[in-house]
Amino acid sequence: ISASLVPSASLSPAIADRYGVDRSRQTQLLLVGLREGPADAETSVQARVSARARDLRGVWPEVPLREVRSEGFIDYAGSVRADPPDTLSVEVRVQRDGGAAPAVLRFSRDVPAQ
User: Is 56 within 8 Å of 12 (Cβ atoms)?
Assistant: First the structure.
């Protein structure tokens, strides 16, 4: 499981369109990828993916994710609103078919004022 949070304002219009996010200082692109295999031959893994993100106010809204297929890979993308400066804590849950319990990935990112 890999996940990243990127300021959508820094994306090219084509990339923002691909992932379905608006380019804005207040919007972050959450991108989740599930891969298996060696780095030179990795393949995508399909699963049920959910995410939520907490800002400094302590609110934990769900982040709607959509499946994006590109160049033979499957990613899950969503947008998170944050008014800079802020810090976002992100929790991603991945449930694979047949898996007993979901895998959970947690990380945080600062959203600096610009």
Answer: no
Q: Which alpha helices (H) appear in 1-114, and where do they start and end?
A: 13-19
Give φ, ψ of 38 to 5 degrees: -65, 155
- Give the predicted TM-score (pTM) of the model: 0.92
Extended beta strands in 11-85, E state: 27-33, 35-36, 43-44, 48-54, 66-70, 73-81
Locate 37 and state its tokens.
Answer: 């295999």
The Cα-based distances of 56 to 25, 27, 90, 108 in angstroms read 17, 15, 12, 11
Separation of alpha carbons 48 and 26, rounded Å: 27
Give which of 27, 15, 9 is closest to 70, Cα–Cα.
Answer: 15
* DSSP state for residue 113 in the 8-state scheme: -
Question: What's the longest Cα–Cα distance across the chain?
Answer: 45
| Residues 75-93 pLDDT 10s | 999 999 999 999 999 999 9
